[in-house]
Structures are given as structure tokens and as C-alpha cells.
TrEMBL record:
Region (Disordered): 158-180
Signal peptide: none
Keywords recorded for this protein, A-Z: DNA-binding, Sigma factor, Transcription, Transcription regulation
Listed GO MF terms: DNA binding; sigma factor activity
Domain RNA polymerase sigma-70 region: start-end pairs: 9-72
Keyword check for Transmembrane: no
Stated name of the protein: RNA polymerase sigma-70 factor (ECF subfamily)
Length: 180
């Protein structure tokens, strides 16, 4: 494939490849990067691009780039988890959101493994299968652990957020009982 033919291939397929990628990534910038990588590979392998099959070849290449990106991201998350397990960072949950102080205090009181599971699910948006892949355990194990972690969190919240938590028992706050 000549440079001119490659330019024509690029012009004819760039928007479609970018749209294909964009539907599978979180941001336009990620779509830009993956699409650029796709066409970079196409340029390097331009002699191997099958004639009359260029478009599907580009989509397959984009799919492979996305797969490699996900694998890399998963390896990075696993590494971060291993590092955090060896030397966990100090986390001040209370300072993150004062509005939900009870929730953050309850989370901080949970064992690290429970907290990590709950945060991977809630903050990182990982599905059970994704958490299982990160932790290297089965999805059934993750489901069971998540259930138990949620139960412990609910109990901890209930313990911290009892009805009338700030009132002194036995004192009435009705009319005629104003203390100054």
C-alpha cells in the first residue's frame, strides 16, 4: 500500500473507527489515543492489510488495541492493590465528605478487605466479574464477600446512627421546657 493509498484509507475510515472506539471507552481523549494507535499499527503493517477487507481489519485492530489497553489497566490496578496491601496509604475518609460523616466513619471502621471491595464496586464501578479479575478469585467468591461486607457496613452505620443519637435521654424539648 502506498502512502497515498494509506491517506485515502485513513480519510475514508477515521470517523467510523473513532466512533467504534468511543462507544467502548470513557472519554474522547481515550478514543483519540486508541484510534491513533490503531492507525499507527495500520501504517506499520500497511503491506499486510488485506485488500478489500481494510475496514474490518481496522476495526479488528482497534478491538485488539482496546483489549491490550484493558489488560494493561487491569495489571496496573492489581499492582496498585498489591502495593497498597504492603504499604497502605493513610486515608482520611472523614475529610472526603463531611455530609456523609457516618458513612465514612463506618467505612473507615471496616476491615481493609471489606472497604476495598465496597470501594471497587461503588467508586471504581467494577462489576463482580471485574473485581474477581482484579483480585484473582472467582466471581462467586467476590459476590459472597461483597454481601458480607455490605452487611458489616450496614451494621456499622446502624451502630453509629442510632435514632435520637444527639439527644440526652429523658429530657423533653417541648414547650415550657426551655433551658438557658
Amino acid at each position: 500500500m502506498t502512502e497515498e493509498q494509506f491517506r485515502a484509507l485513513f480519510a475514508a475510515n477515521f470517523e467510523d473507527v473513532w466512533s467504534f472506539v468511543r462507544r467502548r471507552v470513557g472519554t474522547d481523549a481515550d478514543a483519540d489515543d486508541v484510534t491513533a494507535d490503531t492507525f499507527s499499527i495500520a501504517w506499520r503493517r500497511r503491506e499486510q492489510v488485506p485488500e478489500d477487507f481494510e475496514r474490518p481489519w481496522l476495526f479488528r485492530t482497534a478491538h485488539n488495541v482496546l483489549t491490550n489497553l484493558r489488560r494493561s489497566s487491569l495489571r496496573e490496578r492489581r499492582l496498585h492493590l498489591r502495593i497498597a496491601a504492603v504499604d497502605p496509604p493513610e486515608v482520611a475518609y472523614e475529610s472526603v465528605a463531611e455530609v456523609d460523616g457516618v458513612l465514612w466513619a463506618a467505612l473507615a471502621a471496616l476491615p481493609r478487605k471489606d472497604r476495598d471491595l465496597l470501594l471497587m464496586r461503588a467508586w471504581d464501578g467494577l462489576e463482580v466479574a471485574g473485581i474477581a479479575a482484579v483480585l484473582g478469585v472467582s466471581a462467586a467468591t467476590v459476590s459472597s464477600r461483597l454481601y458480607k461486607a455490605r452487611e458489616r457496613l450496614h451494621r456499622e452505620i446502624a451502630r453509629r446512627d442510632r435514632p435520637g443519637g444527639g439527644d440526652v435521654q429523658g429530657r423533653s424539648h417541648g414547650k415550657g421546657n426551655v433551658h438557658r
